[in-house]
């Protein structure tokens, strides 16, 4: 029997490591530019429908605006930034720290996306991965996609619930 | 320092088992039991809570051979066992048997592996026949001291007559050989030798080196003096008095009660307690003999004895109560520890003894004055007292095998400490052996302050046996620590533990390390 189908299957699995997780659509983002973060939710929590998605905005990500979503309420939690950021001539010292979609119901067998528009400040380091920890609350149970590997390391196979991440590219 | 204090507190808190087997307690041992070392240690260092005398220290190396070239050096509460330079790879066992200040042996084993573990079995414990012999010889000793010496004292000082000395004489003849046997079996127990080794000198010389040795000699001397006081010699009364003092002295010289702190209080209390027991119990057999063939002298004698017995019983109760409070530390120990249970049974027997004594004093003795017929009732009551007293001796002899609650130190569970710059987790596993284990997780920040977590999970795996991670949620206890109870660890071996602490909804701290789980 040819090994090719297996190799293809394995390659497919390897290429979509996030298939079983909440992940960020789009592999790369550029520092110093706007970034549309699309959180893909491929399933619920062990079969239970998703009723709430909470996204933590990492430090250095500003001008956050969530996209409204039919059937869902969207709220933001604001707070102080660790440092001040320059945005179109304005000094921003506080802003959105967390985005929450609630009130909806996403069955386990459906797929949906939750979108946030943002700006990635120059304070972020290029060639690293920027992580957005996500808490997925379901009718039954909670999945926390919050595991962030140690600096420089990639997600290892053992991480059960990795935080969604995006590779940062230097400013062109 | 703060961390150290927290760890000590934790160790005390998690100690639920009563694994300590005797009275000096092992505080620490280096290398820790169950550790796997890259190379052979130079020495195994034991630290006890008090100065100890080494009895038998044995080394079985990783090849399973018993070694006789491990050098033992002592310094107060520490014992150092130098390892031979050619210690092979594998699991070695150092089993120790030391003698605490109160004369009781403490035994245990330390297991460590050089390189990788092998399956070395710890030494089996001494056989049960020895324990029975220890118990019986102790009962015999009590009979000789209390019934024998006490009885002779009663005859010489209270009754002024040698009527009814048959029983004291017989118990003295039991008591003296019992003291000799006690000494021999103590030595056997200290050295962990079989019964047959009693013909060698080793057990005897080690027994004499403990505080129990001289105490037993004093007891023997007291019983010999009492035997001599039975004869009609001019010195008989003096000897009887010295013998009685010897009973108190012998008891105050050794044992867990006499060596409890503060000794200025406990030693005199044991002395007085022993005198009072001998006075009271010793009088019972001659009294029973006296009332069974009543003479006109019996009634004034009974009255005289009753008058003296009152303050003696009060002294007995007061000293007993004092010692019980010191040994137990808290009332719940009466039912929670073997020592306390023995004391509870003893107290019940003592109460029945007191009721019988009160009956004799206030009912049968006055009745005897009016009616000769009361003599048989009084005799029956005195014989019941004798029975209760024997029960007390049998029960109290069982204390030889139980540590008093004050000396029980929780068995040190398996502990690992995981440290990163973010956090420090202390994981305590008790009993730390294959089977059912309880885990206590103490979560601290990198600065050793308590880490507030929303959730904590424990994940265990045993890669060497192909056991995949098993995840268990921990529960926050009222003590501020996270507990995972009744975790099944099916095999001994190097388990991998991973602890996840959810600090905020979005932040989790994960630390992991290996822990060596000992065979059951």
In short:
The complex is a heterodimer of chains A (172) and B (520). Chain A is mainly beta. Chain A is built from 1 helix and 12 strands.
Helical fraction of chain A equals under 10%
Structural class of chain A: mainly beta
What's the overall average pLDDT of chain B, rounded?
80
Strand content of chain A: over 45%
Strand content of chain B: 15-25%
Measured between the Cα atoms of the first and last residue of chain B, the distance is 34 Å
What is the CA-atom radius of gyration of chain A, in angstroms? Answer: 17 Å
Number of helices of chain B: 11
Spans of chain A of at least 5 consecutive residues whose pLDDT stays below 50 are 1-5, 7-19
Beginning-to-end CA distance, first to last residue of chain A: 48 Å
Give the helix proportion of chain B (percent range): 40-55%
- N to C succession of SSEs of chain B: HEEEEEEEEEHHHHHHHHHHEEEEEEEEE
Mean pLDDT of chain A: 84
Which chains share the greatest interface? A-B, 7 and 6 residues
Count every beta strand of chain A, where a strand is a DSSP E run of 2 or more residues.
12
Query: What would you call the structural class of chain B?
Result: alpha+beta
Membrane topology (chain B): Multi-pass membrane protein
Organism (chain B): Bradyrhizobium zhengyangense
Subcellular location (chain B): Cell membrane
Domain Copper resistance protein D (chain B): 301-399
Give a written overview of the molecule:
- The complex is a heterodimer of chains A (172) and B (520).
- Chain A has 172 residues and is mostly beta strands.
- Chain A has one domain (18-151): Immunoglobulin-like (Sandwich).
- Chain A is built from one helix and twelve strands.
- Chain A has one helix spanning 4-15; strands at 23-25, 28-30, 34-41, 50-56, 61-66, 73-87, 90-106, 112-120, 129-131, 134-138, 142-145, 165-169.
- The longest helix of chain A has 12 residues, at 4-15.
- Residues 1-5 and 7-19 of chain A have low confidence and may be disordered.
- Chain B is an alpha+beta fold and 520 residues long.
- Chain B contains eleven helices and 18 strands.
- Chain B has helices spanning 2-14, 128-159, 166-191, 202-209, 212-229, 236-253, 263-292, 298-328, 333-336, 338-370, 374-396, and strands at residues 26-30, 35-37, 43-48, 53-60, 66-67, 71-75, 78-82, 90-99, 105-114, 414-419, 423-430, 435-445, 455-462, 467-473, 475-476, 482-489, 493-504, 507-517.
- Chain B has a five-stranded mixed sheet, with helices on one face. A five-stranded antiparallel sheet of chain B has the order 10-11-12-16-15, with helices on one face. Chain B has a four-stranded antiparallel sheet with strand order 1-3-7-6, with no helix packed on it.
- In chain B, strand 13 (455-462) and strand 14 form a beta hairpin.
- Chain B is elongated.
- In chain B, 42% of the residues are buried.
- Chains A and B meet through loops of A and strand 18 of B.
- Chain B: It is found in: Cell membrane.
- Chain B: GO terms for molecular function: copper ion binding.
- Chain B: Residues 1-22 form the signal peptide.
């Amino acid at each position: 029997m040819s090994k090719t189908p297996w190799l293809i299957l394995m390659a497919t699995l390897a290429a979509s490591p996030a298939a079983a997780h909440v992940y960020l659509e789009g592999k790369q983002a550029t520092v110093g530019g706007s970034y549309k973060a699309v959180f893909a939710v491929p399933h619920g929590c062990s079969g239970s429908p998703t009723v709430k998605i909470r996204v933590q905005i990492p430090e250095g990500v500003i001008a956050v605006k969530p996209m409204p979503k039919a059937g869902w309420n969207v709220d933001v939690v604001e707070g102080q930034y660790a440092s001040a950021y320059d945005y179109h001539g304005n000094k921003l010292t506080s802003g959105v720290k967390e985005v929450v979609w609630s009130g909806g119901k996403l069955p386990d067998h459906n797929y949906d996306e939750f979108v946030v528009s943002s700006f990635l400040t120059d304070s972020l380091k290029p060639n690293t991965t920027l992580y957005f920890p996500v808490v997925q609350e379901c009718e039954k149970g909670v999945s926390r996609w919050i595991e962030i590997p140690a600096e420089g390391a990639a997600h290892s196979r053992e991480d059960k619930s990795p935080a969604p991440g995006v590779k940062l590219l230097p400013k062109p | 320092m703060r961390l150290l204090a927290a760890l000590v507190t934790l160790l005390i808190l998690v100690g639920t088992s009563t694994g300590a087997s005797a009275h000096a307690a092992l505080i620490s041992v280096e290398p820790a039991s169950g550790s796997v070392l890259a190379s052979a240690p130079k020495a195994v260092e034991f630290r006890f809570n008090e100065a100890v005398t080494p009895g038998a220290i044995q080394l079985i190396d990783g090849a399973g051979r018993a070694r006789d070239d491990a050098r033992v050096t002592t310094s107060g509460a520490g014992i150092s066992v130098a390892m031979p330079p050619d210690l092979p790879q594998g699991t070695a066992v150092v089993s120790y048997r030391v003698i605490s200040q109160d004369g009781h042996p403490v035994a245990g084993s330390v297991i460590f592996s050089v390189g990788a573990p092998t399956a070395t079995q710890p030494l089996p414990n001494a056989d049960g026949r020895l324990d029975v012999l220890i118990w019986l010889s102790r009962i015999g000793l009590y009979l000789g001291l209390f019934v024998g010496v006490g009885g002779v004292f009663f005859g010489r000082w209270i009754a002024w007559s040698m009527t009814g000395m048959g029983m004291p004489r017989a118990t003295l003849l039991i008591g003296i050989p019992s003291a000799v046997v006690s000494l021999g079996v103590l030595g056997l127990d200290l050295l962990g030798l079989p019964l047959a080794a009693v013909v060698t000198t080793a057990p005897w010389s080690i027994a004499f080196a403990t505080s129990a040795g001289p105490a037993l000699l004093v007891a023997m001397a007291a019983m010999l003096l009492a035997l001599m006081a039975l004869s009609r010699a001019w010195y008989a009364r003096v000897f009887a008095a010295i013998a009685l003092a010897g009973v108190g002295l012998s008891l105050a010289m050794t044992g867990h009660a006499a060596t409890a702190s503060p000794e200025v209080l406990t030693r005199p209390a044991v002395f007085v307690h022993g005198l009072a027991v001998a006075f009271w119990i010793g009088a019972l057999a001659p009294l029973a003999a006296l009332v069974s063939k009543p003479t006109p002298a019996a009634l004034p004698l009974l009255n005289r004895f009753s008058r003296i017995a009152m303050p003696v019983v009060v002294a007995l109760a007061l000293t007993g109560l004092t010692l019980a409070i010191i040994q137990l530390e808290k009332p719940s120990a009466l039912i929670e520890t073997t020592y306390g249970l023995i004391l509870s049974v003893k107290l019940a027997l003592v109460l029945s003894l007191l009721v019988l004594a009160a009956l004799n004093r206030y009912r049968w003795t006055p009745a005897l004055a009016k009616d000769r017929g009361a003599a048989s009732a009084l005799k029956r009551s005195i014989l019941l007292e004798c029975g209760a007293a024997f029960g007390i001796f049998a029960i109290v002899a069982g204390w030889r095998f139980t540590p008093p609650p004050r000396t029980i130190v929780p068995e040190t569970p398996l502990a690992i400490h995981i440290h990163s710059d973010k956090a420090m987790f202390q994981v305590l596993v008790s009993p730390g052996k294959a089977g059912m284990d309880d885990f206590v997780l103490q979560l601290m920040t990198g600065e050793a302050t308590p880490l507030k977590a929303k959730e904590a999970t424990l994940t265990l795996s045993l890669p060497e046996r192909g056991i995949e991670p098993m995840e268990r949620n921990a529960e926050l206890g009222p003590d501020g620590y996270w507990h995972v109870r009744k975790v099944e660890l099916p095999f001994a071996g190097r388990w991998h533990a991973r602890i996840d602490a959810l600090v905020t909804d979005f932040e989790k701290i994960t630390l992991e390390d290996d822990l060596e789980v000992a065979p059951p």
